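ASSEMBLY PREDICTION REQUEST
Request ID: AP-0331
Submitted by: J.K., bench scientist
Number of chains: two
Total residues: 774
Priority: normal
Notes: Please return the full assembly, not individual chains.
Input sequences:
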Amino acid sequence: MRDVAIIGAGITKFGERWESGLRELMAEAGLMALQDANVESKEIEMVYGGTMAPGRFIGQEHVAALLADQLGFRNVPAVRIENACASGGSALRQGYIAVASGIHNIVVVGGVEKMTDVNASEATTALGGAGDQEWELSQGITFPGLYALMARRHMIEYGTTEEQMASVAVKNHENAYRNKYAQFHKMLKLDEVMRSKRVADPLKVLDCSPISDGAAAVILAPLDIAKKYNDTPIHIVGSGQASDSLSLAERDSLTELKATQIAGKRAFEQAKLRPSDINVAEVHDCFTIAEILAMEDLGFYEKGKAAKAIADGETKLNSKLSVNTSGGLKGCGHPVGATGVKQAVELTWQLRGEAKDRQVNGAEVGLAHNVGGSGATSVVHIFKRSN
Amino acid sequence: MRDVAIIGAGITKFGERWESGLRELMAEAGLMALQDANVESKEIEMVYGGTMAPGRFIGQEHVAALLADQLGFRNVPAVRIENACASGGSALRQGYIAVASGIHNIVVVGGVEKMTDVNASEATTALGGAGDQEWELSQGITFPGLYALMARRHMIEYGTTEEQMASVAVKNHENAYRNKYAQFHKMLKLDEVMRSKRVADPLKVLDCSPISDGAAAVILAPLDIAKKYNDTPIHIVGSGQASDSLSLAERDSLTELKATQIAGKRAFEQAKLRPSDINVAEVHDCFTIAEILAMEDLGFYEKGKAAKAIADGETKLNSKLSVNTSGGLKGCGHPVGATGVKQAVELTWQLRGEAKDRQVNGAEVGLAHNVGGSGATSVVHIFKRSN
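STATUS: Completed
Returned structure:
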């Protein structure tokens, strides 16, 4: 297997992109990544497109071939990867495997979702497809409801408080404020989060990531030729993925995501690194409780210790470990298929030292963590600056 | 890159499977493949699941993780692959890449679609997502309509007749009659096809593949350890894939699928074989005209010559080249995500000499050809018996 690097990154502004359809969003992010990588269209050998539910959001399946066509390489093989909200991270892993295998050299990994063409109720129903339709969603529970169950159990077992959860939102909006591609440029006060409308007790609307349009893309190449394209290739030193039951009821615990624990362990083992080696991380904060679970399941904190640490500011920009510098799903927005790829884009910029106002000083090693549904898929990648 | 083989194959009966949901279909085919391969659950390292539109058919996305769970390996990484009706073939290719790369040893590739939980009109709309939603489907054209345009143009350019197209349906129903897993066990007379109701002129209902439920699965392993599991591993000697524009209007020709031409060329080059080396082929006959296009685009016949050859019986069972011995999409049924995997299952049986009443005498080399939409994706695999 060959070493693989990211040689280009592109993204759109996330948010309510009324003026752009799915294909325009894909083209915008894809062309930015191609230009950044300094590759020509004819060099592209394969396209991976991560997207969750374009059939339900806009009536369009078969999106990867559309992406290839929009980017100007019509006959290049393309596949869509879907793993609910982990579609982007899963697409990145498949692109990584394709380049590592030697079967393809230059590969485009795109992620996209166009969610605002349907109303919020339809969007919530579509997103419900990430959980167990037959045993969960058809009974009436929504995604905020599933995470609310996890949050409540975490409060009972570890004394986690609503204020601690709210502090995740405050931190991530603070980071988003410094990211021009983020959906929200509005700082939040803890009190605002606490007073916001309850969606699924104990989660309030400001504990939840928004419905968003957006796209992101990275270009992968074998590490040994990456320098031809880019002075600072970002080496993918670890890639781990794992699954779990779709339905919460079949799991042993509500306060941990086993898929994240396994995926993280695999990525760290491959990278020969430990959590303490990570300088900057993008973790999956679809709800504030999810960031707390992630920080524990990835081994950054012992079970039950992350909430207080986050509330104490340990994961703010340029503190002990800078987490969700992009603003995370909460502040940057969550076009579901794009999120996992956006994490790789943010970490590429951070490790190159190009993250401007939100640059983590001396960032050399980054981690991306992308979750599908309520944890039935988890994908973890570890990146290292290689110049 | 390592050589890769199929070591197990499983399938469900295709048809209107009112008694079974998506998860039961997946489990049925998957367990049959696992037993056939004689592998233990703990040996499985990765799951690829091909399915087109489960979100629209049954409200369920995130199907690969569900498949892994249903088959008893809950924490194994899983990804769903979607490329419209080429989802199954695309999943097979990704599984092939994963094993070839050395990153995984034993991999499950499943394909499934549960289409009959919605009515025919909703199913037609969902399938429309395989074409260009913005430039084709939203204008009112359906999938039979797109293929009717290709059929009419083929008639004008090459003198192809409706009777010749109908002969494809007659042949494939004859093969399906000998396949206990096929949706239809009804022989057709040419006259019956000709008199059937027009769906999109010149295509009649009996020129069209049906709406179906069903699943199929194969187990892949590195060739060098395949004999440990199976006396007759089926070696994947060629794998090619290509894309094209989603919309017909953007193509140079309506009478050829460029994606099939490129994918076929790549697979033949890798296999170091020519069309004349193939003994048995499963090609994508979503409509009768599609089988004619496939036979030409894959190089079995010159452009304009396939229709007469098929009508003359050259591709019947145990004639010059046996095509669609399973019954094809037309006779065996077309649960879209399952079709590409079913082709691999049928060829595994043929090359092992286990195809019973429909066994092609002395079959040693087989070809599978799976198309997405109206040709925006095409995937070709070539298989060889390796004992």
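REVIEWER COMMENTS: The domain at 4-119+212-226 of chain A is CATH 3.40.47.10 (Peroxisomal Thiolase; Chain A, domain 1).
SIGN-OFF: pending second reviewer
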